[in-house]
Specification:
- 38% of the residues are buried.
- Helix 1 packs antiparallel against helix 2, helix 3 packs across helix 4 and helix 5 crosses helix 6.
- A hairpin with a 6-residue loop joins strand 9 and strand 10.
- Strands 1-2-3-4-5-12-6-11-10-9-8-7 form a twelve-stranded mixed β-sheet, sandwiched between helices.
- It is of the alpha+beta class and 283 residues long.
- It has two domains: 119 residues; 143 residues, Aminopeptidase (3-Layer(aba) Sandwich), CATH 3.40.630.30.
- It starts with a strand and ends with a strand.
C-alpha cells in the first residue's frame, strides 16, 4: 500500500480516472478540476503547477486520490485506513507546501493530525460545506420576476466583477484574473444570467459535464437584488438545462454557515449527500 505523487495530469487520469468516475458525485471537484486543467493548461488555477496523487491498496487497485491546485487547500477523497500519515510523508518528501485540507470530516482530521505531527503546524477550521445532488427538480412557485438567459460576451465585465465579489464573500482565494474564469465558462455556455426589469440581477454557473455530472457554481446575487428569488430561478434554469443536455447528476455545494442557501436549494429538490470540512494550517 503506497501513495504515488505526480505532477503529470495524464498519468493521474490514466491511473486514478476510473476510481474517480466510479463516484462522480462525491468526486465532482476532482473530475471538473482535472477537466479544466486539461482544457486550460496547468496555470488554470494559479501560477504554481498542480500536484496529483493516488493510493493503491493491497490488491494494487486505486482506492483514494488527492489533487492540489495551490494556493487552495489540498483536496482529498475518502481515505482508506492508515493512509493519512503516508500521504503527509509523501508530500513532505517532495517539499510540498500544504496550506490546508478539504475532505470529509474524519479524513480531514486524520490528515491534519498527521501533517501537524510531522511539521508542527497549527490547525484551525475554516469552514464546512455540504454536497447536494438534485433529486426531482422543483422550480420556484411562484417564479421570480424576470427570466433566465445565457450569458454572452457583452456580460463579461459585469460577470467578472460578480465572480470577484462572490470569492470575497465566501472567503475563497480569488482567481488571478476573473475575466479568464468568465471566458472559460462562456466558452462552453456555462453561465446563465437572470434578468429582471431589463437588467441582469443574478447569475448561476455550471462546470463542464464530466462522467455524466454537472456541478452548479457559482451562484451569486448582488446584495441590492437579494430576497426576491432570483438565485433560485437561475439555479433552477441551469439545472433544467443540464438535465436537458443529458446530465445524469446535477450537484452543488453550500456553506453550512449559510442557512438561506441551504434551504433554497432543498426547496428546489436538491438532497444532501455528504459534509466536508476545510482545515487550514499555520506555522
Amino acid at each position: 500500500m503506497t501513495w504515488t505523487i505526480s505532477d503529470n495530469l495524464a498519468d493521474y487520469l490514466a491511473v486514478a480516472g476510473d476510481f474517480l468516475r466510479s463516484d462522480p458525485v462525491r468526486n465532482t471537484i476532482h473530475l471538473t478540476t482535472a477537466e479544466s486543467l486539461g482544457v486550460r493548461g496547468p496555470a488554470a488555477f494559479g501560477q504554481t503547477p498542480p500536484l496529483f496523487g493516488w493510493w493503491r491498496g493491497d490488491g494494487g487497485e486505486v482506492t483514494a486520490a488527492v489533487l492540489h491546485t495551490p494556493p487552495h487547500p489540498i483536496l482529498v477523497t475518502r481515505l482508506p485506513e492508515r493512509s493519512a500519515r503516508p500521504l503527509a510523508e509523501a508530500l513532505l518528501a517532495r517539499h510540498w507546501q500544504v496550506p490546508g485540507v478539504n475532505a470529509e470530516q474524519n479524513d480531514a482530521a486524520a490528515f491534519a493530525a498527521a501533517w501537524s505531527g510531522l511539521t508542527g503546524a497549527g490547525v484551525r477550521e475554516s469552514g464546512r460545506i455540504r454536497l447536494f445532488r438534485l433529486g426531482r427538480l422543483r422550480p420556484p412557485s411562484p417564479p421570480p420576476d424576470g427570466a433566465a438567459r445565457l450569458a454572452t460576451d457583452a456580460d463579461r465585465d459585469l460577470l467578472a466583477s460578480w465572480f470577484a465579489a462572490f470569492s470575497e464573500e465566501v472567503g475563497e482565494v480569488a482567481h488571478r484574473d476573473e475575466r479568464e474564469a468568465v471566458d472559460d465558462r462562456l466558452s462552453h455556455h456555462g453561465l446563465t444570467v437572470w434578468e429582471a426589469g431589463g437588467a441582469a440581477v443574478a447569475m448561476a454557473g455550471v462546470n463542464r459535464r464530466v462522467a455524466g455530472t454537472v456541478r452548479v457554481a457559482p451562484v451569486y446575487t448582488p446584495p441590492e437584488h437579494r430576497r426576491r428569488g432570483y438565485a433560485g430561478g437561475a439555479t433552477a434554469a441551469v439545472a433544467r438545462a443540464a438535465l436537458g443536455s443529458g446530465a445524469q447528476n446535477v450537484v452543488l455545494f453550500t456553506d453550512l454557515a449559510n442557512p438561506t442557501s441551504n434551504s433554497v436549494y432543498q426547496r428546489l429538490g436538491f438532497l444532501p449527500v455528504e459534509e466536508r470540512v476545510v482545515l487550514v494550517f499555520r506555522s
